[in-house]
């Protein structure tokens, strides 16, 4: 499966991506903005295990893609479908190689992913939970139409420091309306 917009492609991970994934993910600045389940340092073995899990996993509750920019792996983005009373929700998570920060790549990747999730799954709400200090991630979400629902004080611990986190969300009806407005402006 391949999702495209301009020079950005989201595609399934491939075995040939192992070295590039390890190179990207072995960055303390990336690790500092992700949950502790993300290893640091990030080794070739970590990359191999992750890609093998993505290729062999039969998890119907998640869809994870490599982000390609001009044909080169630049990061990862995924949607994680929730269950039980939260079954109409999906959480997204993502990271990007540092060399691509600040040029709008993640904003485009988020937009591609949420279009796919809303079109493919019976989901009414997509949310993300960045750390409050991660201004770049928060801006990427806002540019696509996510709104801040809550700032949770002293909600997380990262690197031994108690931190605030945020909940950003977008509803399917809002995204469709916003997308229609954007398409009208392009025309």
UniProtKB/TrEMBL annotation:
Q: Which SUPFAM superfamilies match?
A: Acyl-CoA N-acyltransferases (Nat)
N-acetyltransferase domain location: 16-174
Does the UniProt entry include the keyword Cytoplasm? Answer: no
Indicate yes or no for the key word Transferase. Answer: yes
Note the Gene3D superfamilies from the entry: 3.40.630.30
Assigned keywords, A-Z: Transferase
* InterPro entries in UniProt: Acyl_CoA_acyltransferase, GNAT_dom
Organism superkingdom: Bacteria
Q: Name one GO molecular function term.
A: acyltransferase activity, transferring groups other than amino-acyl groups
Tell me what this protein is called.
Answer: RimJ/RimL family protein N-acetyltransferase
Species name: Anaerobacterium chartisolvens
């Amino acid at each position: 499966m391949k999702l495209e917009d301009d020079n950005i492609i989201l595609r399934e991970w491939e075995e040939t991506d192992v070295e590039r994934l390890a190179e990207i993910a072995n960055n303390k600045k990336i690790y500092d903005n992700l949950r502790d389940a993300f290893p640091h340092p990030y080794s070739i073995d970590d990359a191999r295990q992750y890609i093998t899990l993505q290729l062999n996993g039969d998890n119907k509750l998640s869809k994870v893609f490599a982000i390609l920019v001009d044909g080169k792996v630049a990061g990862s983005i995924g949607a994680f479908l929730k269950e039980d009373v939260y079954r109409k929700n999906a959480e997204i998570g993502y990271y990007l190689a540092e060399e691509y920060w600040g040029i709008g790549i993640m904003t485009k990747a988020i937009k591609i992913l949420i279009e796919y999730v809303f079109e493919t799954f019976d989901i009414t709400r997509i949310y993300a939970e960045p750390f409050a200090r991660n201004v770049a991630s928060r801006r990427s979400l806002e540019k696509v139409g996510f709104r801040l629902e809550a700032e949770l004080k002293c909600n997380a611990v990262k690197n031994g420091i108690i931190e605030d986190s945020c909940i950003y969300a977008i509803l399917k009806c809002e995204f469709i309306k916003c997308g229609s407005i954007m398409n009208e402006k392009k025309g």
